[in-house]
Amino acid sequence: MTAISTQPDDIEKTTSDTPIASMVIRGRVIESNLIRIEGRGGDLTFLTPDVRQVLGSLPLKDPAALKDLYRLTLDDILDYLVSLGEHLRVENNAHLQQARALSYMTAPTTPPLIDHTYERLPAFFERDRLFELAEQAIGVEYLEGWVPRGLLSGATANIRCFGARAVHIVAGNNPIISVMTIVRNALLRSDAIIKAPSNDPFTALAVARTMVDMDATHPVTKHLSVAYWKGGDGEIEAELYKPANVEKVVAWGGLASVKHITQYVQPGLELISLDPKRSVSIIGVQAFADDETMREVAVRLATDIGAVNQQGCVNARVVYVMSGTDAAGVGRANLFGQLVYDAMLQLPTRTSTKPKRYDRSLRESVDSVRMQDDWYHVVGGRDDEGAIIVSQLPEPVPFALELTDRTANIVPVDTIDEIVGAVNAWTQTVGVYPEELKTSLRDVLPLYGAQRLVSLGYAAASAGSNAGRQDAIEPMRRMGKWIVDEAADPELVPPLWQ
C-alpha cells in the first residue's frame, strides 16, 4: 500500500470557492459534470457530479466481480482496515480536515462535537474491535468458509455467509454512521454504494478518498462507491433499485423516505430499515435515597440527554422517575430536574454543547408550558441552551415527540405499571437506574417494544459496541446472504425415489 500524501493539492478542489463533493466509484475519483446542491439548512452550497451521467457504471452489474474479495482471508481484510485506521488520523489527513471543516456548516451538531467524533475515527479500526464485530455479528467461521452442521435427518448442511451488492442510504446526524457502514461492508465482503446525506456529504467521501490513496486497486477499495444524489429522485432510483443491480437497500431515514423506498422492493431486493427511534429513561425510587445518590443519578441522566446534543436515537427524551406523585414526590422531581439541568450544563464540550440551532417550534412549545405552572415546571431554556421540563402530573408533555436540542421531560410516577405502557415499537434505548430495576424489566419491556436496555448514563457511550445488534435486529446478518449446501447420503437419508 502506498503512503498518503497530505499536501494541500490533495484536498478536494473548489470552483469559485464552492467545495466539491467528489464521487468515488470503486477506486475512481470523479469530479466532472458538476451540479450545484444546497446543503441541509442552507448553510453550505456544494458541487457534486451528476449521478445520471454515471448511472450505468454505479451498480456492480456482474456479481462475479466480488470474487476478488474471496481471494482474501479475513486477516487480509483486517490488515487493510487497521492500516486504514492509521491513515484516518485527522491531524495527518487532508481529506478528513476538509470534511471536518465543511461539516461545521452542514452537520446538526457543533464544532467541538464534530472534532471529537473525527478524533475517534481510528478507534473503530482497532484489530480486536474489528474481530469482535466479525465474530459476534456473524461468526468468523461463516465468513471464512463453509461450516458443516449435522441434521437429525442424517443430512449435512454446509453454511456460509456471502456478501451482497447493496445501497446504503446513511443518516447524517453522526459521521460514525458512514464509518460503520464502510467497516461492515468490508467484513462482509460486500459491494457498497453509499448515498451520502445532505447534512454530511463529506465524511464517507473523505474515507473513500483515503482508501483510494492507500491502494486504488485493493479489492476492499474497489467495492466501495460514494455518491450524492437528491433523495426521492425517481429517475435515478427506479434505475438503480433493481435486483439486477443491487440485492439490499439499507436505509437510515425518516418515515417518509423509508416509505418512498418500499415502492421499489420486490423479489430479489430486500429493504433493511434502520429508521429513527425514540428513547426513554426509567429511574427507580432508589435514586432519591439521599442527596449524593440523587446528584450521581442526575449526572448520569444529563449525559443520556445531552450527549451529541440529543441528536441520536439513543438519547433520552422522556424520563419516568418513581419519585411519587403527591406533593412531596413532585417536589423531589422538581429538585431532581434542577440537578439534571445543572449537570447537563457542566458536561464536557466533547460530549455536549449549547445546541447549534435550537428548534424554533420547540422553543415556542417550551415557552408555552412555562406559563402553565400548575402542570409543568420548566428549568432553563431561556437562552436556547436546552431545558428540563418537569411534569407536575404523571403525564408527558403534548409535544414529547418533538423533544430535541437538549430538552427533556421528567414525568413523576408512583409505580412501574405507569411506565410500561409508554414503551412501544418506536422505543429504542431505555436507560435504567438502578441495575436491579433493569434486571427486573428486561423480560417485560421487550414485549411492549423496547429494543435496548442500558445502565443509566451509558446510552450513547455504549452505542455501537454491542457487536452488531441494533433496533432489535442483527443488521449485519441481514446484510449478508446465508447460503446452504446440503449433502445427503442415500445410505443415511431415505431418498424420495425409493
From TrEMBL:
GO BP: bioluminescence
A Pfam match: LuxC
SUPFAM superfamilies attached to this UniProt entry: ALDH-like (SSF53720)
GO MF annotation terms: acyl-CoA dehydrogenase activity
Highest taxon, organism lineage: Bacteria
Classification via InterPro entries: Ald_DH/histidinol_DH, CoA_reduct_LuxC
Organism of origin: Rhodococcus wratislaviensis NBRC 100605
Keyword flag Protein transport: no
Keyword NADP included in the entry's annotation: yes
Alphabetized UniProt keyword annotations: NADP
Identification of the protein by name: Long-chain-fatty-acyl-CoA reductase
